Amino acid sequence: MAEQTAPPESTGVPGAISAGPPGPAAEARPEKPDAAVVRDALGVGIAVGLSGFAFGVTSAGSGLSLLQTCVLSLLVFTGASQFALVGALAAGGNPYTAAAGAFFLGVRNAFYGLRLSQLLALPRAVRPFAAHWVIDETTAVTLPQPTRRAARIGFTVTGLTLYVLWNLTTLVGALGAEALGDTDAWGLDAASPAVFLALLAPMLRSTTERVTAGLAVLLALTLLPVLPAGVPVLLSALAAPVVLFLMGRAKRAPGTGDEDDAVTQRKKGGRRS
User: Fold this and answer.
1) What is the torsional sign of CA 181, 183, 186, 191?
2) Over the stretch 7-33, which tens digit does the pLDDT of each residue have?
3) Which of 87, 101, 110, 186 could be cross-linked to 233 through a Cys-Cys bond (beta carbons 3.0 to 4.6 Å apart)?
4) Cβ atoms 251, 258 nearer than 8 A
């Protein structure tokens, strides 16, 4: 997690979190009972943690050993990246390409950390350990909390529950892969990506975000049959700069409000001179 550069400003409620300078719209939200935060965190941690079984089965079916599978869950601990890695390897992809695809999927956690570091304001000694738990699920539980205390509880309970369950079910899944037979027939490799999409969908609030996500999916599906495994995931990241470029051009196009405002300002400046 990134270091905190400045303490968040107060909203007027003890321990409350503010994302920016106070204003008319920045009203403090009421505090949330600790029990409610724990309940929400446990719900997410248990639901997602159990899908570690799917990863264990998929990883073992992809040819990874029991040790390799468990080490991935212990040290990487970001489900979508883990599934991307073993999926690319199972499809015969180059190990370096597979690792690159998994890496770029995991980069999103660094951006989560920039925001969570301000909300949680953890002691420096704790931050390296907390950074390992900065993932989609802990972020989804932490961000909506109204106070720093609630955010810390939500982050800790979600991270601990998910980490323990994910690793335990990974072990069970890897051990039981042989008993299941053909692991591809079960479709378990889709479990974690489905959970990831379910968490991501509510966060796509703006048109730009929805268009970017849609274009990324379209690119990945289009390139999947023609490129080596792992490469479509990397190239789907091009959706973001493409959408931003097109939206920038649309704003600068003739007849847009931005250009009209600029022309008006120039005319006013000419009259003053």
Assistant:
1) positive
2) 444 343 334 444 444 344 434 567 888
3) 101
4) yes
